[in-house]
Amino acid sequence: MGKIGQQITEVAYRPWLSAPIGMDVVDFAELRERGRRREIDLADPQRPDFHHLIHLDAGGGPLRHTVDFTTHVIPPGGWLWVRPGRVHQFAADEVLERTRGTIVIWRPGFVTADMPDELPLRPTGPDRELVDLALRHLLAEYRHLGTLSLEAHNATLRMLLSVLLVRLANAGAQDSPEVPPDGPFDRFRAAVERDFTTSHRVADYAAALGYSTRTLTRAALAATGLTAKAYLDSRVVLEAKRLLVHTDAPAAEIARHLGFPGPGEFTKFFRKRDGRTPLAFRAEARGRFQDPRSRA
């Protein structure tokens, strides 16, 4: 992201040398140790380029985890999935010292299974038994590298992680829209992630992807309840809010970074969708946004 994102730590996927290609598993002690080795304060804003699936042991306490200005409380025995590119913050190190659980991390594309964004879950009854079984099977295979060829080991882990994610996605009969894999919305979402700082027009994405704007709007509505334009605008607003809260960049610099001709156009765009000017949002958000370290 360059200079404008200095206060958001970009975290690249870097597993153990012995880890399978594209996936790794750590506990909270190892998470803290990796943070220290890479000089990353886990309570500071960070943007990993890989998935986090966080699971807490049933016998411990809850954990607060902040993802893009929303603080989720993961209950004992609960789960939270954080996708790549989200800005998130772990609790203070003193809290993580007391936290017990498992974190599965993987690169985009390692599996194709999907589930709702940042949805804290605590499966119960038969759902919990099956989810726990899926996790145990995944961890057992992960720990037994060498009993199969590397190719077979990775293929097995992909299937077992997919089973775990499908079980979690359906725990408690979650109502989520059916979105075809690699369909119009999936391609639109990927294109928005890549190009939202350079294009704010749905027509540009439609032309590049070979769809009509109507097709993208129908697909976005089915997947998110938002029109394609509203989805695109919400992504731009989210990035603006991240930069306003987590960096000290002036509004004019943020406007340039997000592809606006000038600060006036950026302010008009932001105020129309948020109801506040960018600087008013920054002042209010910084006044109420608590550093996770203050909750230790």
What secondary-structure arrangement, pairings included, does this model have?
Blueprint: E1 9-11, E2 23-27, H1 28-37, E3 46-48, E4 51-56, E5 63-67, E6 70-74, E7 79-82, E8 88-89, H2 93-97, E9 101-106, H3 125-143, H4 150-170, H5 184-195, H6 202-209, H7 213-224, H8 228-246, H9 251-257, H10 263-274, H11 278-288
Parallel strand pairs: 1-3
Antiparallel strand pairs: 2-9, 4-7, 4-9, 5-6, 5-8
Helix pairs in contact: 3-4, 8-11, 9-10
Structural description of this entry:
By secondary structure, the chain is of the alpha+beta class. Helix 9 (about 250-255) crosses helix 10. The model is unreliable at about 175 (pLDDT under 50). The chain has eleven helices and nine strands. It comes from Saccharopolyspora griseoalba.
How many distinct folded domains? 2
Question: What is the assigned CATH homologous superfamily of the largest domain?
Answer: Regulatory protein AraC
Strand count, sense and closure of the main sheet?
Answer: 4 strands, antiparallel
- What structural class do you assign from the helix and strand content? alpha+beta
Q: Percentage of helical residues?
A: 40-55%
> What's the β-strand tally?
9
- State the shape: globular
Numbering strands along the chain, what is their spatial order in the largest sheet? 2-9-4-7
**The CATH architecture of the largest domain:** Sandwich
Distance N terminus to C terminus? 31 Å
Proportion of strand residues = 5-15%
